[in-house]
Amino acid sequence: MEQQSSTKRKQPPSSNTADRPSKQLRRPSQPMEEEIPDSNKPHTNGFTTSVPETNGHSSPRQSIDEEGGSIIAAAADTAEWQATIEKVVNRVVSIHFCQTCAFDTDSAISSEATGFVVHVDDTTAYILTNRHVVGSGPFWGYAIFDNHEECDVFPVYRDPVHDFGLLRFNPSKIKYMSLAPLDLRPDLAKVGVEIRVVGNDAGEKLSILSGVISRLDRNAPEYGEGYSDFNTNYIQAAAAASGGSSGSPVVNIDGHAVALQAGGRSDGAATDYFLPLDRPLRALQCIREGKPVSRGTIQTQWVLKAFDECRRLGLDAEWESKVRAEFPKETGMLVAEVVLPQGPGDAKLEEGDVLVQVNGELLTQFVRLDDVLDSSVGGKVKLLVQRGGEDVTVELEVGDLHAITPDRFVSVAGAAFHDLSYQQARLYAVTLKDAGVYCCEASGSFRFEGSSSGWLVQSIDNKPTPDLDTFVEVMKSIPDRSRVVVTYKHLRDMHTLNTSIMLVDRHWHKHMRQAVRNDETGVWDFSDLSEPVPPTAPVPRKANFVQMAGAQHPQAVDIVRSFVRISASMPLKLDGFPKARKIGFGLVIDAEKGLVVVSRAIVPYDMCDISVTIADSIIVDGKVVFMHPLQNYAVVQYDPSLVQAPVKSAKLADRPIKQGEQTIFFGFNQNLRPVVAKTAVTDITTVAIPASASTPRYRAVNLDAITVDTSLSGQCGSGVLVTEDGTVQALWLTYLGERNGHSGKDVEYHLGFGTPALLPVIEEVKGGGRPDLRILNLETQTVQMSQCRIMGVSEEWIERVEREDPERHQLFMVRKVDAGNTGGLQEGDIVLTLNDRLITRVSHLDVMYTHVTLRAAVVRKQQQMELDIPTVPTSELETDRVVVFCGAVLHRPHHAVRQQISKVHSDIYVSARMGGSPAYMYGLAPTNFILAVNAVPTPDIESFLREVNKVPDNTYFRLKVMTFDNVPWVATMKKNEHYFPTVEFIKDASVREGWRRVTYEDGKMRKGEGECLPGAVDEGGAAGADDGMEG
What is the distance in angstroms between the CA of the first residue and the CA of the last residue of the chain? Predict the structure, then answer.
C-alpha cells in the first residue's frame, strides 16, 4: 500500500508537493485576476473563487490547473454500454451554485459542478453531490437537467467529514421528462471493474469519461489548507476528469452508481479519486426515513498503512497473523495520524498507534470503524491498539461530530465569526476547547494583516473570547467607534500571539446578526442579536511631539509638529479604489480649525472612517471637507478642542520652488518614522500618471511633479520639502497609478507638489468655504517647440513662449477629452492662451477654477482659432449615490471612467461585485454599464431602482449591458434578496457618517437602516494587501 506523500496536515502545504489532488469544480467563465499563490501547484482544490480582495493570502482552493491531463472520451462503446449511458444521463444534473459568504474552510465562490438523482417520490427528490459543492456555509443554486429544465436546489445534508452532500428539489418542477434515481451500489466497486464517469466535465454540458478501477484502498487525498476528506478510503481510477465534474456518478456497465467523483491529480497524470458510497447510502436511508444522520467521533484521524509500515511501528507478528487470517485480502491496517489535544483520545491514544480491535472485534476498514462510531454517539467504545509491540486497551467517549461542526455564524463590525470546526482543528492539530473564536471573513474592523481567514481571536478589550457565545457577549458591550485591544493567532502559527488596536465599526455595519443553518428549508435564518451601544463622548487629551535633537536645521525639523497620521477605512469599495484601508500622513494647514491636507491615495472618497493621530498619542475622528478633482489632495478636518498638543500650522511658500534649488526633504518612511535629508531639486516636469486600464480609479492629471536627489524620496509616501526656516515649499505625496498586468499589484508614485498651487483653494477652505471648482474636463500633455512648429504654431507664438517663460519652452496639447465633452477643445488641439494668458505651466490652468467659460486661443489642424470653451462643475464628479444590487456595487460613472472612455453609455456603472453573489454568478462584471431592465431603458439610478423593485424575489430578469469596450450583451439574472438585499446609500450631511441608507425588500423600502455586508469585494482585478490596523 502506498503511503500518501503529501505534506502532513498540521503543516502548511509546500509549493512543490507533487501529488496533491484537485477538486473537480469548474472555473467561473469570468475569473477574477486574483493574486493566487502557488497557482501551478499540482494538487489544488480546483476552483477559482469569486473573492476579490484577500490581503495577499488566499486558500489553495482558489487555484486551479486546467491542464490536468487530456480528457479521455469513451471510445466506441458496446451496445450494452450505450444503453447504460442513455439511462444514466437523464439522472445526471449540472449544478450551478454560489457559496454566498466565507465560512469555515470555504471562501465565497460561484462555480459549477455535477450531481445525480438518488431518490424521487411524489413531493421530494434528492441529488447526491460533493460536500465541497454543497459547502459548509450558506448555499444558493439550481440544477439543470439533461433536457435543460431547471429547478432550485436546497441543501438537506452535508457530511461533517466525508466529501458528500445531498440537495433537495421539488420533482413537480420537472415537467418534460420522467425522473428516476440511480441505485447506489458500493458493494460493486471492485478492482478491474470498467466504469464511466458521467458529468459536467470542464464546464461542458455532458462528458462521458471511461476508466478502470485500479485501487480501493487509497487514503483520502489532501487538498492543502481548504476542505479535505479523511477517515475514509478512496477509490482510484484512470479517467482524467477535470473542472466541473465534482459530484459525477461513477457507474458500471449495469447502470449502478458504484462511487462518487471527488477529485483528481492536476499534474497531468490521468488519475481520479472517487468516494465510496457506503456512508452516502446510509445518510440517504436515514433522510428518507426522517431520521437524523448520527455521526460519532473520537477526534482522531486514522490513515491506512501497509503491513510493512505497521511492523515498523510495532505491530507484532501474532496480531498480524490474526488479522491476515481474518481478512486475507487486506494489505494494511489503520494507524493513528492526528489525536486532537483535549479530545476524547488525548492522553489515551498516540500518533503511530496501530488499531487492532474495536469493542473486541478485529478491524482494518474505515467503513466498519464509521459504523461503530456512528452507532455509539454519547456512549463509549473500547479500542485495542499496538504501541511499540505492546497491547494498549483504552476506553473512549464517542462525541457527536455534528456538535463540533459549526452551523451558525455571527457578523459584526464588518467581519464574520464562528466556533472553530473539527475540520480546521484536525488540519492543524489544535484543540477545539477554548481555542478562540474563528474569523472566517477578516474584513471591516477585523481586517488583520496577512490573511483574510484562519484567525482565532483570543481576546477583545482584554476580555477572553474562547468561543462564539462569549465573543457575542463581549462585542455587545463595546460602544460604537471605540478603540480596543484585540489579540489573535493564526492557525498556521499558533506560537505567536498578535496584538492590535481596533476601531469598532457599529455604524456602517450597524447590527450584530446571527445566521443559523436550517436544514428544513435549506437556507440560513438571520436574526439580530443586539443594537449598537452609542459611542462615548471623546475627551480632550494631552501630548507632545517627538524631538529630533541631532538635526542640523532645528526650524526645519520642527515641521514634525505639523504632521498627523491619517488612517482611512472604507466600508464599501467605490470608484474602483483597490484598498479598504490606507494609512499615511497629512500636513496641518490650520491648527486652530484642525484642517489637514492629505493625498487622495490615502483618502480616496468621503464614504470612510478617518482616524487622525496627533503626536503618536491622541486619536480623534476626522471628516472630509474638500477633495480636489485633479491634483491628488483632500482636506480633512478634526476637532482641535480635543487636542491639547503643540500642533503648528504649516507655513506654505507662495513662491514656486526652482529646479536645482537646495532644500530639506522631511518625510515618513515605511515604518511611519520621520526621516530628514538635505537635498536638491533635480527636476520639475509635467507628468502623466498612467491610467489603470482594467480598473478606472482616481488619478491625478495635469500636474507638475517635483523630484529630488535623495533615495529617501522613493521610500517615503508622505512628507514635505522645507526651507531651513521651516517654510513648506512642496508637499511630498503618494500618487496611485496603474495596475501591473503581470503581478496584479497597484503601482504607487512618490512625487512633490508645489505649495503655490494649493494656496487659492486652501485659503477658501480656511475661510470656511467649500470650493466648488470648475475644470476643463480634459487631459493635457506638453509639446516642445519643435513639435509645435510642425503642428502649425507660428514663429510669433514660439518667440513669445521663449520670451515670457525662459524656464519652460513648452505648450500644452489636449491628449484626451472626457466623455461628454461637447463644444469645447478637441484631442490634438494646442492651447496657446486662456483668457488671454499664455499657458506654459500647469499652474496657469488654474484660471479655469472660477470661470463658467474661457476664451481660448488654440491651434487645430494647422489653423489658429479663437474659441469659447465651457468648464464643468466638479460637484458633479464625486459619487453621491450608491446602490448595492444582487451583490453588484452600482453608481454613476466616476471621473476616472469619464477620463478613459469616449462615450458614457448610461449613469449606471458596475464599480465592484461581491463574491458568491448573483452578480458574480451571472457574469455582471466591474466596468460594465447597465442600459435596461427587462427591455425598459434605465438611464439613471432612479429608473433602475424603479424597474428592479418590480421584479419578485427568486425570479429571473434581463439586463441589457454594455462593456467598457462598447460590446453590448444581455445578462439574465435571478434575484436573491435573502442573502443579497438591495441597499441604497445616499450622501446626507445631516447623518454623522455623511451617508444614509435605505434597504428594499419585496420591492418596497424597508424600515430601518441597511447594512454594509461583510465580505470581500472585487473591484475588477487583483490588489495587494491593505495597510495594517491602527496599532
Answer: 52
Cα–Cα dist 611/678, whole Å: 31
Q: Which residue has the cell 465651457?
A: 870
Phi-psi region of 798 (alpha: psi -120 to 50; beta: other; left: phi over 0): alpha
Average confidence (pLDDT) over 607-627: 92
Q: How confident is the model at residue 579 (pLDDT cuts 50, 70, 90)?
A: confident
Rounded to whole angstroms, the Cα distance separating 574 from 889 reads 8
* DSSP at 73: B
> What is the rounded distance in angstroms from the CA atom of residue 418 to the CA atom of residue 1006?
28
Strand partners for 898: none
Domain boundaries, the chain: 79-289, 296-402, 406-530, 541-767, 774-874, 879-1007
CATH of 79-289 among 3.20.20.140, 1.10.1040.10, 2.40.10.120, 3.40.50.450: 2.40.10.120
What is the spatial distance between Cα 785 and Cα 520, in angstroms, rounded to a whole number? 77
Catalytic residue among 132, 418, 750, 891: 132
Q: Which residues pair with 813 in a beta bridge?
A: 781, 830
853 to 824, 845, 848, 926: CA distances (angstroms): 10, 13, 8, 35
Alpha-carbon distance of 855 to 851, in angstroms, equals 10
From the candidates 22, 245, 445, 713, which is the catalytic residue?
Answer: 245
Q: Which pTM does this prediction carry? A: 0.86
CATH code matching the domain that covers 296-402, chosen among 2.30.42.10, 3.40.50.1360, 2.60.40.1730, 1.10.3660.10: 2.30.42.10
Question: CATH number for the 541-767 domain, one of 3.40.50.360, 2.40.10.120, 2.60.120.10, 2.60.120.200?
Answer: 2.40.10.120
Contacts of 495 (CB under 8 A, 6+ apart): none
Question: pLDDT tens digits for 159-183?
Answer: 999 999 999 999 999 999 999 999 9
Provide the 8-state DSSP code for 83. Answer: H
- Whether residue 163 lies in the annotated active site: yes
The grid coordinates of residue 941 equal 439610478
How many angstroms separate the CA atoms of 578 and 745, rounded? 10
Rounded Cα distance, 811 and 806, in Å = 13
Band the pLDDT of 970: cuts 50, 70, 90: very high
Q: Is 407 a catalytic residue?
A: no
Distance from C-alpha of 31 to C-alpha of 920, rounded to nearest angstrom: 9
Displacement of CA 782 from its chain's centroid (Å): 40
Q: Which of 940, 917, 892, 883 is nearest to 1018 (CA)?
A: 917
Going by C-alpha positions, the residue among 263, 201, 216, 260 that lies closest to residue 43 is 263
Using the predicted structure, report yes or no on whether residue 128 has a pLDDT greater than 90.
yes
Closest CA to 255 of 321, 302, 188, 209: 188
List, for residues 808-865, the tens digit of each pLDDT value.
888 999 988 888 776 688 889 999 999 989 988 888 888 888 888 889 899 999 999 9
CA-to-CA separations, 901 to 267, 880, 894, 965, in angstroms, rounded: 42, 21, 11, 8
Find out whether 888 and 910 touch, Cβ atoms under 8 Å.
yes
**CATH topology identical between 406-530 and 774-874:** yes
Query: What residue type is 289 in one-letter code?
Result: E
Q: Which DSSP symbol is given to 1014?
A: -
Superfamily of domain 774-874, CATH level 4: PDZ domain (2.30.42.10)
302 neighbors 369 (Cβ within 8 angstroms): yes
Question: CA–CA separation, 293 vs 131, rounded Å?
Answer: 15
- Sign of CA pseudo-dihedral 740, 741, 742, 744: positive
Q: Which of 38, 65, 163, 1018 is catalytic?
A: 163
CA-CA distance, 5 to 20, in Å (whole number)? 9
What span, in angstroms and rounded, lies between the C-alpha atoms of 920 and 141? 13
φ, ψ at 847 (rounded to 5°): -60, -20
Task: Quote the CA–CA distance of 187 and 216 in Å, as a whole number.
Answer: 11
